[in-house]
Specification:
6-stranded mixed β-sheet, 2 domains, about 280 residues, 10 helices, about 15% strand, disordered C terminus, 6 strands, alpha/beta, Rossmann fold
Length: about 280
């Protein structure tokens, strides 16, 4: 009796996998299916719910047969477990028949072999195409950039002039592929002297100074000391509208540390604003 009951439990358990629960995909309603280029794929085959139905029939026969012969408590417990599995197969079969029918309806409405074509909307204006790097380089080629003398409280003027010269060198590296001219200090002073104007490097005055000498772009810098560190704030403006194109802050424990970092930061500031230039190879740090 034990062997027969065990064989029954194995056969019953192996046929109650709930095939439909596992394999049948719920179809999308019509209003949802239209949101997809392809409707949600699901099966239109009934073999899974049919298998669940066969498992249910096996349970009805087997449970009835065994329950008529064995009525002990241990046998009843096994039969109860297997009966639950049989009910699972029955529920899975009902689920499968219902949703396979839905899938068939969906397949006839939205054939899965053909993409769903959304309604064509009226064409709008074409998206703007950004200029190529080569074209952008042509637009700024021949323009001029001025680096104003750095501002800094309680700092030696020679040190500030060295900072601005270092930034000129970095800007020249970053702008050389674009053909932008970096103005020298001497050239700027001559132009300002001829106009009877003085240089300044803060606020709107920095842009105005650059306009006075005919510069299209201007870099200004201010040095401050906070506790035991030095900080340089670099700002890059275009002079026609006064727009800020970029800014950077350089930190150093000493003035020597600032000098070592300023050239590369100035190069990166111009590259970030104008790009590396067409067919240019950027030097490594």
């Amino acid at each position: 009796m034990g062997v027969r009951l065990l064989a029954f439990a194995l056969v019953a358990g192996s046929t109650t996998t709930g095939c439909s629960f596992i394999w049948v995909t719920r179809p999308a309603p019509k209003e949802e299916a239209r949101e997809y280029t392809f409707p949600v794929r699901c099966t239109d085959s009934y073999w899974m719910p049919v298998l669940d139905t066969a498992a249910t029939a096996l349970f009805v026969t087997a449970v009835t047969s065994v329950s008529l012969q064995y009525t002990s408590k241990s046998d009843a417990a096994v039969l109860a477990v297997d009966s639950v599995l049989g009910l699972t197969a029955l529920a899975s079969a009902i689920y499968g028949y219902h949703y396979v029918g839905k899938c068939k309806q969906q397949a006839s409405t939205f054939p899965v072999d053909e993409p769903y074509s959304a309604p064509q909307m009226a064409p709008g204006p074409p998206a703007p195409v950004p200029p190529s790097p080569a074209f952008a380089a042509v637009q700024i080629r021949g323009k001029r950039l001025a680096v104003l003398e750095f501002q800094g409280k309680d700092l030696d003027q020679d040190i500030l002039m060295t900072f601005s010269d270092t930034v000129r060198g970095g800007a020249l590296q970053g702008l050389r592929p674009h053909g932008v001219v970096v103005m020298t200090r001497e050239n700027m002073l001559v132009l300002l002297r001829e106009m009877g104007k003085k240089e300044c490097g803060e606020g709107e005055c920095e842009v105005e100074t650059a306009r006075n000498i005919g510069a299209d772009y201007v870099i200004s810098g201010k040095v401050v000391r906070v506790e035991h560190s030095y900080f340089v704030t670099l700002k890059l403006h275009e002079t026609q509208g006064g727009s800020l194109l970029g800014t950077d802050t350089v930190e150093g424990a000493s003035q020597v540390d600032l000098l070592r970092s300023l050239r590369e930061h100035a190069r990166q500031l111009t590259i970030a604003a104008f790009g590396p230039g067409p067919d240019s190879v950027l030097p490594t740090r």
